[in-house]
Specification:
Length: about 425
């Protein structure tokens, strides 16, 4: 079915910051629109998000964060190339690559390219008369992902109440997505009451909907979440295990890892040992960004000594980039990759990175950003791509729950099975 119109416009994300939306109309009169997310603890190697800071288009009320340049690129450069094409994701993405062959999409802005690419994916599913998830896997059971859910927030998302960015819970023993989510909600609410009773909550809801509670150490934060799990009658390690997003780039300076709440600074070698002790002594089954985005040596050292079944997940390290994934595989610097479409800039290229990771036995976790919108396409991508795992933040905030709710809908309406990767 032919594309008849394409346009971009500015909307707000969950933090009140401008972001890019794009809409694609088809010859049957339908329109398909998508909004792009945006990060706060953004990796240096991510595709380039275009904002108006230095431009004459900068909107003063948004402090330079407006995205009119990116929108102008959609309307004046991308749209004329795409109108008249068939609504096929691969052909739309190829046209965008022809216009902007830079690996980081810095010519058009990765927020401009991704908005159009996502709208094209949705239009393409509509033309096939299937859901977005189903458009990627025509036959067989779709694979609903195991959620990895934020309970405590720190780092850049909660005014650094904790050095690390997230303590998360993974409902490894749940038999369905519906059951998994109900456990998580109970745990998060129990943790909120425990924090309130202790008079400790400073940010009731952080950027990703988690709780901002100050702790003296990572270990104390983990024990608090373990207590919350037990308080609702679930077994730590059997029903629900822990995961960390250390987001270590945020506290790596001059070759040292600075844990401010613990009042300690570690050399890279010592931080490898420190984290290995932590994951060996606690029911932590996944650790994200344990080291800084270019500290390959520590990643490789840690991967060689950490418990064999630990998931070592690269976010800022890998930035959903095919070439950085290749390096990680050859250096044995991780065993799992976080997949964020806006780190890459195109839907089909993001899918390609996920497929090459899976072919090398890397686990894949499709992830939202701290700046999200009400869109739920992420749930369909994770399911249709058979990622196996998803990370969306917590269970507060409609921008988070839109994704969980879409997974509940997929479980209720499509032929699915639930992924149990641990
Ligand atoms: P970000 O955080 O979206 O602010 O980068 C999410 C994450 O680190 O996984
Ligand atoms: Zn991360």
């Amino acid at each position: 079915m032919k594309i008849t119109n394409v346009f971009g416009y500015q909307v707000l994300d969950s933090r009140g910051k401008p972001t890019v939306a794009a809409s694609i109309s088809l010859e049957d009169g339908t329109s398909h629109s998508a909004r792009v997310p945006s990060g706060a603890s953004t990796g240096k190697h991510e595709a380039k998000e275009l904002r108006d800071h230095q431009s004459h288009l900068a909107e003063q009320y948004y402090g330079g964060n407006s995205v009119y340049l990116a929108i102008e690129n959609i309307n004046s450069k991308i749209a004329p190339e795409i109108v008249g094409l068939q609504s096929d994701l691969e052909s739309v993405d190829q046209r965008i690559i022809d216009l902007d062959p830079s690996p980081d999409h810095s010519l058009l802005g990765a927020n401009a390219t991704l908005a159009v690419s996502l709208a094209a994916a949705m239009a393409s599913a509509h033309a096939k008369k299937v859901s977005l998830a189903r458009s990627f896997q025509p036959d067989g059971n779709l694979l609903l992902p195991m959620p990895m859910v934020n309970i405590l927030s720190g780092g850049a998302h909660a005014n650094r109440t904790l050095d690390i960015q997230d303590v998360l819970a993974i409902p490894v023993g749940a038999q369905s997505f519906t059951e998994a989510l109900s456990w998580i909600v109970a745990i998060r609410e129990a943790a909120a009451s425990m924090g309130r009773e202790a008079g400790k909550i400073t940010h009731l809801v952080a950027d990703e909907g988690g709780l901002g509670i100050p702790f003296d150490s990572m270990e104390d934060a983990c024990i608090f979440v373990m207590d919350a799990i037990e308080s609702v009658g679930l077994n730590v390690g059997i029903d629900v295990a822990l995961a960390l997003d250390v987001a270590a780039t945020q506290f790596f300076e001059n070759g040292l890892y600075h844990l401010r709440t613990e009042g300690e600074s570690y050399s890279a070698e010592d931080f490898v040992d420190y984290l290995n002790g932590l994951v060996s002594n606690l029911p932590i089954i996944s650790i994200e960004d344990p080291f800084a985005e270019d500290d390959w040596k520590s990643w490789a050292a840690f991967t060689s000594i950490a418990p064999k079944d630990l998931q070592i997940l690269g976010d800022d390290l890998l930035t959903t980039s095919a070439s950085r994934l290749k390096t990680a595989i050859s250096e044995r610097a991780a065993n799992a990759i976080l997949i964020k479409a806006n780190q890459n800039g195109l839907v089909s290229a993001t899918h390609q990175v996920l497929k090459s990771a899976q072919s090398q036995n890397f686990a894949t976790v499709v992830s939202a950003r701290s700046g999200e919108t009400e869109d739920s396409w992420l749930a369909d991508l994770a399911t249709g791509w058979r990622a196996g795992q998803i990370k969306v933040g917590s269970t507060h905030g409609s921008e988070r729950n839109a994704k969980w709710n879409r997974l509940l809908e997929l479980e209720a309406t499509e032929q699915t099975e639930f992924s149990r990767p641990f």
